[in-house]
Amino acid sequence: MLKVRSAVSALLAAVLAVAIAGCSFTNGSIILPRKYDPSDGVGADIGKLDVRNALLISEEGDRGNLVVSVINPTEDEQPLTVQYESATAGRSTVDLTIPANSTVTYGWGDSDQIVFEDIDTIPGALFPVYFQSGDSEGADLQVPVLDTTLAEYNNLTPSPSPTPTPTPTAEPVPAPTPTEGTIDEGDNSGEGQPGDSVDTAE
Fold first, then answer.
1. What's the predicted TM-score (pTM) here?
2. What is the pLDDT of residues 175-189, one digit of tens each?
3. CA-CA to 38 of 20 to 30 Å: which in 32, 55, 75, 192?
4. pLDDT tens per residue across span 109-125
């Protein structure tokens, strides 16, 4: 009887081990961790650079602040080209240089902003942005468009458009019109006075 129970216990243990192994094998989230974006933005590996957490902050949908972090793990500075479609100017390009061994963030806090001008989008939509570096093929990312509803994005609206300084218009100053001299008819003594005409004094 003891041998039977031992055999049954061994059989159950073997079945349970196979069942657990089967679950682990088929569940990719356990065995093979997936790459995902742990934020509101999106990212991609662009050549030797890592683009992370790219999103666009826009209130009206016609201008947007690109918030993005770019990681350069190499010993050399790397170029990065950012392109987007402008409603009036067509394909617009922003050229950046990412220093060696650095992570550069744009559009967040006191960092420089990359402002997309004259775009046609709305908060809640996805806006296509093309990233390319060096000889890499580049990638089109569907960047989420967000507004300032969330408190962490409240101060990330695009900086105001620069107001053009009016250029003063030079106007010609009119030249003075010459006036004819006058003669004092009461003085005819024969002695010349300033403003008198020549007289024979006869």
1. 0.62
2. 666 666 555 555 555
3. 75
4. 889 999 999 999 999 99
CA separation for the pair 36, 56 (Å, rounded): 19
Place of tokens 């089967």: 22
Q: Under 8 Å CB-to-CB from 28, ≥6 apart: which residues?
A: 34
CB atoms within 10 A of CB 16: 10
Residue 113 makes CB contacts below 8 A (sequence gap 6+) with 65, 66, 106, 107, 158, 159
Place of tokens 């695009």: 158
Neighbours of 106 (CB within 10 A): 18
